């Protein structure tokens, strides 16, 4: 039995707030729940809040990249918000600069970024 | 004798709805029909609906990328819509994240995306 990460809906945006260190099964469940919710709710985008995470290692980095890729093929944008300064420094030192993942400082900025992206679709990546 | 995939015209947009697994010849016919129709109808864009597909393998992925590329050199945008959550997850797990292919959740959103792209042409790719 594992806990599931809750997926909240705010307007047309889905919010995933990661509060604890995730185990493998929780990550797989989250990917499944989230892709189902994106389609069911016709979401404009996904915001992943990692404010609570003190460490982002390559496992978490890969999870963020995978979630962003799944959302993208479903036509939905993902923005990671709330990264701590120390986490950003560690990520870059480790050479994990989260390719393909959009980031914003705060939840508010992340939601604005999604709205802008929906109004002005970007060039093909 | 092989069936052909129908290409419908809705306003200035061409709609291709893929209902069955495609064989090689059907894919070639579709590419030919579609490029001819883009030119004949002066279409603003192409929407490919894959709601009916339960599996998108590398063959289908390549076909979508090829159609998008053909449309692009003809000056027309392509958006793939109706991808199922399970299909999105499988694609990403297989490393097939459809580079160069735009996606949207629903037919409606796909058509909106094409209209916006025509109003705001993006930078050279």
Taken from the alpha-carbon principal axes, the silhouette of chain A is globular
Number of separate structural domains of chain A: 1
Q: Largest sheet of chain A, if any? A: 5 strands, mixed
> Overall mean pLDDT score of chain A?
89
Cα distance spanning the termini of chain A? 38 Å
Within CATH, the superfamily of chain A carries the name STAS domain
| Radius of gyration over C-alpha positions of chain A, nearest whole angstrom | 14 Å
Tally of individual helices of chain A: 4
Please indicate the percent range of residues of chain A in DSSP E strands (runs of 2 or more): 15-25%
CATH architecture of chain A: 2-Layer Sandwich
Give the helix/strand class of chain A: alpha/beta
In the sheet with the most strands of chain A, the strands line up as: 1-2-3-4-5
Write down the CATH topology of chain A. Answer: Transcription Regulator spoIIAA
Q: How many DSSP-defined strands of chain A?
A: 5
- Written as H for each helix and E for each strand, in order along the chain, the element string of chain A is EEHEHEHEH
């Amino acid at each position: 039995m594992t806990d599931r990460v809750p997926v909240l809906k705010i307007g047309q945006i889905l919010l995933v707030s990661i509060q604890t260190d995730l185990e493998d099964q929780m990550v797989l469940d989250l990917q499944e729940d989230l892709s189902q919710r994106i389609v069911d709710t016709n979401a404009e985008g996904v915001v992943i809040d990692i404010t609570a995470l003190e460490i982002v290692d390559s496992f978490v980095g890969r999870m963020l990249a995978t979630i962003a890729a799944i959302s993208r093929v479903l036509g939905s944008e993902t923005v990671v918000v709330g990264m701590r300064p120390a986490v950003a420094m560690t990520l870059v030192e480790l050479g994990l600069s989260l390719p393909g993942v959009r980031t914003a400082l705060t939840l508010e900025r992340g939601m604005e970024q999604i709205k802008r992206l929906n109004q002005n679709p970007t060039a093909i990546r």
